[in-house]
């Protein structure tokens, strides 16, 4: 999605107006993704219906069992806030088609389970009460709806992808009716819950080889959908997964997913948010043991901001509605670090290009306060940090966590270089942060 090509427009918003509309999101830098649904009870990946080629009937047991008796969205919101997350995005409906909200267009919804209530309403109220912005994830794919035309990734196509099977399964299915269902539900979501700040639609998969087996903007009625969304919620921020690439305002941000931190540099100068998990799967996965370390999570957060982007980090609550011990441990560690160092994340972006990045470290920068932050991933054993070409541009040097001054002077070799003398004992943070006043 590039704004350089001469592209059509859906609306009339100027770049300056878009920047104004998105300022809170860009300054926030850090959000919480929450993937919660019937798959949380299966507890082995949110794609379990696809992975095990389950029919609606075989999947019904997760609906019957769904009973989030420990759901406490205020607890979720407080944990997100403590971790320095400024917004959240909750799955209102994932590919399984189950709705956490009280939609009048389906019976496949939380009020008809043992939950007996609208869980989206409680999420919105609780997160707003804690001062967080609220977003909705809404799946474009729907593996339950009778009019959703099946494609190569639909659960019932997994055992037999033949043209005959495709034709047989799709007999009588009407995608126009499914598009109307989506418009009706998105209208409910954007009119029944107050001001919604983000709509995270997911995902398009155009099939160049056989378009009838993929889905893209035209399948979703994307241009009409964006016009509806912006009419209902003029300030809302929309992701890029309707694939409306020919329209400059068809999306507000790019969504690199689970990419390595080295890949993030190529997004510098764009508007983007990388979405990442603690462990690989988005939905609760009880037996998954590929959990990222605290250092890896800090690397994702700091490197995202160091390249001018946002990080949305996912939690997959259990079927009872709780964050499990592994998520809580990860969030607690992030809260400890963010309590002392969030100023180097919020309202920051990449550093001016004429500041060399010390080997292995990261730089972030707040243009309003003219503070440059050195994130010391590579804390020098001898305490000596040489910053090439910084000497004439730095007024003061301190640790961010305790505002303790750090000794520094121009190098005796090249006076343009600043030599910072850090304590040999590293401060009690996985990645200590040095604040330079410019
Ligand atoms: O298939 C989904 C997946 O389950 C998850 O929701 C991610 C989140 O970005 N989006 C899709 C995969 O790209």
TrEMBL record:
Question: Is RNA-binding among the key words of this record?
Answer: no
Q: Which keywords does this chain's UniProt record carry? A: Glycosidase, Hydrolase, Signal
SUPFAM superfamilies assigned to the protein according to its UniProt record, in alphabetical order: (Trans)glycosidases (SSF51445)
Q: Which InterPro entries match?
A: FUC_metazoa-typ (IPR016286), GH (IPR017853), Glyco_hydro_29 (IPR000933), Glyco_hydro_29_N (IPR057739)
- What Pfam families does the database record attribute to this sequence? Alpha_L_fucos
Q: What is its EC number?
A: 3.2.1.51
Q: Please explain the role this protein plays, according to its UniProt record.
A: Alpha-L-fucosidase is responsible for hydrolyzing the alpha-1,6-linked fucose joined to the reducing-end N-acetylglucosamine of the carbohydrate moieties of glycoproteins.
What name does UniProt use for this protein?
alpha-L-fucosidase
Origin species, per record, is Mucilaginibacter ximonensis
């Amino acid at each position: 999605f590039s704004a350089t090509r001469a592209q059509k427009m859906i609306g009339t918003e100027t770049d300056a107006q878009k920047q104004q509309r998105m300022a809170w999101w860009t300054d926030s830098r850090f959000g919480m993704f929450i993937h919660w649904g019937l798959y949380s009870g299966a507890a082995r990946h949110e794609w379990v219906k696809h992975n095990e080629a389950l029919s609606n009937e075989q999947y019904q047991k997760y609906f019957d069992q769904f009973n989030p008796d420990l759901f406490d969205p205020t607890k979720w919101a407080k944990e997100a806030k403590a971790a320095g997350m400024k917004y959240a995005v909750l799955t209102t409906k994932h590919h399984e088609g189950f709705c956490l909200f009280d939609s009048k267009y389906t019976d496949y919804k939380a009020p008809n389970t043992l939950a007996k209530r609208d869980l989206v309403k409680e999420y919105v109220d609780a997160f707003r009460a804690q001062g967080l912005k609220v977003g909705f994830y809404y799946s474009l794919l729907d593996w339950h709806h009778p009019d959703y035309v099946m494609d190569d990734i639909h659960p019932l196509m997994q055992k037999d992808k033949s043209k005959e099977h495709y034709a047989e399964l799709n007999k009588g299915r009407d995608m126009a009716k499914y598009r109307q269902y989506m418009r009706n539900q998105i209208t409910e979501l954007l009119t029944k819950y107050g001001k919604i700040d983000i709509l995270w639609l997911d995902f398009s998969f155009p099939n160049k080889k056989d378009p009838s087996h993929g889905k893209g903007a035209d399948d979703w009625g994307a241009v009409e959908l964006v016009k509806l969304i912006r009419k209902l919620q003029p300030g809302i921020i929309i992701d890029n997964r309707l694939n409306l690439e020919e329209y400059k305002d068809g999306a507000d941000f790019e969504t690199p997913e689970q990419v390595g931190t080295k890949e993030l540099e190529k997004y510098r100068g764009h508007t983007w948010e990388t979405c990442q998990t603690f462990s690989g799967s988005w939905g609760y996965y009880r037996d998954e043991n590929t959990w990222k370390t605290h250092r890896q999570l800090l690397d994702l957060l700091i490197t995202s901001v160091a390249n001018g982007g946002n990080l949305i980090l996912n939690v997959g609550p259990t079927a009872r509605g709780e964050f499990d011990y592994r998520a809580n441990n990860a969030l607690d560690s992030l809260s400890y670090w963010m309590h002392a160092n969030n100023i180097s994340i919020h309202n920051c972006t990449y550093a001016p290009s004429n500041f060399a990045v010390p080997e292995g470290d990261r730089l972030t920068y707040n243009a309003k306060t003219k503070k440059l932050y050195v994130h010391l991933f590579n804390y020098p054993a001898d305490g000596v940090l040489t910053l090439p070409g910084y000497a004439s541009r730095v007024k003061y040097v301190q640790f961010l966590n305790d505002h303790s001054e750090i000794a520094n002077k121009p190098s005796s070799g090249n006076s343009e270089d600043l030599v910072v003398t850090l304590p040999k004992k590293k401060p009690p943070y996985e990645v200590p942060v040095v604040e330079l006043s410019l």
